[in-house]
Design goal:
The complex is a heterodimer. By secondary structure, chain A is mostly helical. Chain A is 63% helix and 0% strand. About 2% of the residues of chain A have low confidence. Helices cover 36% and strands 18% of the residues of chain B. The longest helix of chain B is centred in the first third of the chain and has 32 residues. The chains are: A mainly alpha, B alpha+beta. At the A-B interface, α2, α10, α11, α12 and α13 of A face α1, α2, α3, β7 and β9 of B.
């Protein structure tokens, strides 16, 4: 490997075959910013599809009878909802979209390490998504065994839909692996000379940790799904008990990927929040070093907690004990991150804009989901609520209340960089309010439903649960409505929003130290060397506060 | 007059703990408890609820206070304080969650022990049984992992066999291996540990989309589970097609029913009444409709139910090939 200095990456003109203008967003572009936005917009399209599917689910559950769609269709819908939201919305957006857009800026590079691989990784997504959605319209319908696809159910349901589901997830997994390799190479090998690892913005660390998880665990899922497709198509017996297979082995292999997948979805969100909070609080990110170590702690622990999804599956007792303790301990590095964010807010100058509100709501929602998560890690607790609406509530607090809130915060934060225009703050706050209220209305009651006897993935339920299910459905409706001000805001602002200038937030991270939107290859001239990405804040003496020391400000004694 | 900040923090912390305790004691989120392990579970729930409330209220309070207290006034373009970290603070908020999590883990381990979940690791009875009987090998061939067929780890090693004539279920051979070194333990559901006590066996067959309950002693097949109160019951569960899960929310008990592996669950119902049995694992289109009822009877009432539903003459049953449905 040869070392290249930034000046080597400075061709006189952009590559001739790369289309310019709006057409580049529909092309096999090699520009990391174009690819990032391709990921983002594609992700949002699938978010609306997945959201519509969620709407179908909540409509069905507005009454205790299965009276809205056929039961089989309901199972197809819940399978598609889970698969679309995880593999086509959250993973591609927090990793692919923001990762591609931001990481080259943060390491001071002009593009990702492997631009062509990067474009391939993106262009795997639209066909995989179309394939998945189209399976609904084929004979036999889409997969209907849930996003977990547990055999023997996945072996006995209509084969075509299930095989297409497997193919689609394999493509998306491949895309994810390509992305992961690219991020690791970019962060470790493409840093601007003089930029040390411990000077990188936190999102780089989050993406490094996430990519390690992706590269280690996604191949396991791929192998598992290939074996499952053999069981379906070639009637092998890997997971088919009728042929001597073992269904629990599938669950182990599946969750070996799919629990780390949770961290693949939330670690980048942690990174994004770590970028947003210091800018809008005008304070350095608190405890940089411990934040880095806690990310790596989460990566290591995240790989050894998978069997907590299987406490009722007939796992041996020692395994339950081990996975309970390991899962509980993941709360420690996660807690460190949250306390550090709180400390970042403390004593700052908080701009109460949409980005900040969504970020703070993320903290609140995720803490709630984290608390129920630690409870769920306890075997006796889990034995009661496993596979119930309690779990549904819990993981939506993590992936929606956590990650999706951060995605919105990030849109409000980086939209000026993407487009050169500001988003409308009034619409933004309306969007926040509707989303926050709708989200909590939708998912908080589900915890009670689960504790009191409502299993997940059902089209019909005990009539005594009707009221809370209707509350939940109203919340879902609010969430649906909340996207309207957002979409209007994004479209209107992209066309005629207030010009943002290059750095409307007076931020210090490198992506703001170029024009908005940035030029191809990111900087005219050499990339800036940013050694203090969070160098906000004024010395105590300059501030007009009565506190004599930081300690006093810290404790709120002023 | 300025109140010292440490005092304010202390008072706020105490108030927070009191709020958590009050909420934990007074807000009931759980259904009625109807098995002997349900109160144990509820204790754990209460502890987690209290800790969770304290944490959640505390953190939300901090966020809201920060958003109000430190909000940027219009026109203020200055920065906050340049504080990049504080090592003692980091150590504190690493150590406190670690201690809390460790406490919760150990406590829930203890709860699980009391509920009987932690089967001993040297429980080889199943493998020995599997080696003895060809029929058992069929079961463990699919589930040939240690503990795999021990379900929730809720087998009592060497439980006294209540009835060996009723059924051909090979796993009844399990009782052949009482380990003298083992302490008498409480199992799965829980209830007081009396190893001399007889477990009332019921065979459960789960299929799309129903549970069937077979009483080997009385030779009754029922679509509802009828059990006596205050007697340990053991369910031996098999699935015919796909994975199902047996869940009785009022018993705080759930166990997957896995094709190819017999799983077991033991519990003692305490409160007579009818409770729902819910399938908790997605098993196909009618998963939501896969429900049944468990009826907990007073012991004498249960004997009457058994007598009422016992087939008149076993010979007739055998010849006609039909089993009476209760």
């Amino acid at each position: 490997m040869t070392l290249a200095s930034p000046s080597d990456f400075n061709p006189p003109a952009p590559p001739g075959l790369q289309p310019q203008g709006w057409l580049r967003y529909f092309s096999f572009s090699l520009d990391h910013k174009v690819i990032g936005l391709q990921y983002l917009v594609t992700g949002f399209i699938f978010y609306f599809i997945g959201g519509a599917l969620a709407g179908v689910i909540r409509t069905e559950l507005a009454s205790p009878l299965s009276d809205f769609i056929p039961r089989q269709t309901y199972n197809e819908v819940l399978t598609l909802h889970g698969t679309v939201m995880i593999f086509l919305w959250i993973v591609p957006v927090v990793n692919g979209a923001f990762g591609n857009y931001l990481i080259p800026f943060y390491v001071g590079a002009r593009d990702m390490a492997f631009p062509r691989l990067n474009a391939v990784a993106f262009w795997l997504i639209p066909p995989a998504g179309l394939l998945l959605i189209s399976s609904y319209f084929l004979a036999g319908g889409a997969a209907q065994s849930g996003w977990t696809a547990y055999p023997p159910l996945s072996i006995t349901t209509p084969a075509l839909g299930q095989v297409i589901w497997i193919l689609s997830v394999l493509l998306l997994g491949g895309s994810s692996i390509f992305g992961g390799i690219n991020f690791i190479a970019t962060i470790l090998k493409l840093r601007r000379p003089g930029l040390k690892l411990m000077q990188l913005p936190m999102y780089c660390w989050a993406m490094l940790g996430t990519s390690i998880l992706v590269v280690l665990s996604t191949p396991v899922l791929a192998g598992t799904l290939i074996l499952l497709s053999f069981d379906i198509l070639a009637h092998t017996g890997f997971f088919n008990p009728a042929l001597g297979g073992n269904v629990v082995v599938y669950q182990h292999l599946f969750w070996f990927y799919s629990h780390p997948a949770v961290y693949i979805m939330v670690l980048p969100a942690f990174g994004l929040v770590s970028e947003i909070l210091p800018v809008h609080a005008r304070k350095p990110l608190f405890g940089y070093t411990t934040m880095v170590y806690s990310i790596m702690g989460i990566v290591v622990l995240g790989l050894v907690v998978w069997a907590h999804h299987m406490f009722t599956s007939g796992t041996p007792p020692w395994m339950r004990l081990f996975f309970t303790i390991a899962t509980s301990f993941i709360a420690v590095p996660t807690g460190i991150k949250f306390f550090n964010w709180l400390a970042t807010l403390w004593g700052g100058k908080l701009a109460l804009n949409s980005a900040m509100l969504f970020s703070c709501a993320f903290i609140v929602n995720f803490v709630f989901g984290g608390i129920t998560g630690v409870a769920l890690a306890q075997v006796p607790f889990d034995i009661h609520v496993h596979d119930t609406y309690f779990v549904v509530g819990h993981f939506h607090y993590i992936v929606y209340g956590g990650t999706v809130f951060v995605i919105f915060a990030s849109i409000y934060h980086w939209f000026p960089k993407f487009t050169g225009r500001m988003l409308n703050e009034h619409l933004g706050r309306l969007h926040f309010l509707l989303t926050f209220v709708g989200f909590n209305l939708c998912f908080a009651p589900q915890h009670w439903l689960g504790l009191n006897g409502m299993p997940r993935r059902v089209a019909e339920y005990d009539p005594s649960f009707t009221t809370l299910n209707q509350v939940s459905s109203v919340g879902a409706l609010l969430m649906g409505i909340s996207t309207l001000p957002f979409v209007i805001n994004v479209i209107a602002s992209a066309l005629s929003g207030e010009p943002a200038g290059d750095n409307p937030w007076r931020a210090l991270t490198p992506e703001w130290l170029t024009s908005s939107p940035p030029p191809v290859e990111n900087w005219h001239g050499e990339a800036p060397l940013v050694q203090h990405p969070y160098g906000y804040g004024e010395a105590a003496g300059i501030l007009d506060i009565r506190a004599a020391s930081g300690q006093q400000i810290w404790t709120g004694d002023q | 007059m300025a109140i010292p900040s440490s005092l304010v923090t202390l008072i706020l912390g105490m108030a927070l703990v009191l709020v958590g305790l009050w909420v934990g004691q007074n807000v009931n989120l759980l259904p009625v408890d109807a098995s002997s392990n349900a109160p144990v579970y509820d204790d754990l729930f209460r502890v987690l609820f209290i800790i969770g409330t304290i944490l959640f209220v505390g953190i939300v309070g901090l966020v809201i206070y920060s958003l109000v207290r430190f909000r940027r006034r219009t026109g203020d373009l200055r920065d906050g304080l340049a504080v990049e970290g504080n090592l003692p603070l980091e150590i504190v908020w690493t150590a406190i969650p670690a201690v809390v999590v460790l406490f919760v883990g150990i406590y829930s381990y203890d709860i699980y022990e009391r509920m009987g979940g932690m089967a001993p690791l040297n429980d080889h009875s199943l493998h020995q049984a599997a080696a003895l009987t060809p029929a058992a090998m069929v079961h463990s061939a699919a589930g040939h992992q240690h503990g795999g067929s021990s379900g929730a780890g809720m087998i009592q090693p060497g439980f006294s066999q209540a009835d060996s004539s009723g059924s051909a279920l090979a796993l009844q051979q399990v009782s052949a291996d009482p380990d003298p070194a083992e302490q008498p333990r409480v199992w799965a559901g829980i209830g007081p540990s009396r190893s001399d006590e007889q477990l009332f066996p019921v065979e459960v067959t789960a299929m799309q989309f129903a549970f069937l309950f077979h009483y080997p002693e009385a030779n009754i097949i029922s679509g509802e589970l009828h059990i006596p109160a205050d007697q340990p019951v053991e369910l031996r569960m098999e699935a015919k097609d796909v994975i199902h899960a047996f869940w009785v929310p009022q018993f705080r008990l759930k166990q997957d029913v896995i094709p190819g592996q017999t799983t077991r669950v033991t519990f003692t119902a305490t409160r007579p009444g009818s409770y729902p049995i819910v399938c908790a694992e997605l098993c196909g289109p009618y998963h939501g409709g896969m429900r049944s009822t468990v009826v907990v009877h007073e012991p004498d009432e249960f004997e009457a139910w058994l007598a009422r539903n016992r087939p008149a003459a076993p010979a007739t049953v055998a010849s006609s090939g039909q089993l009476p449905l209760a």
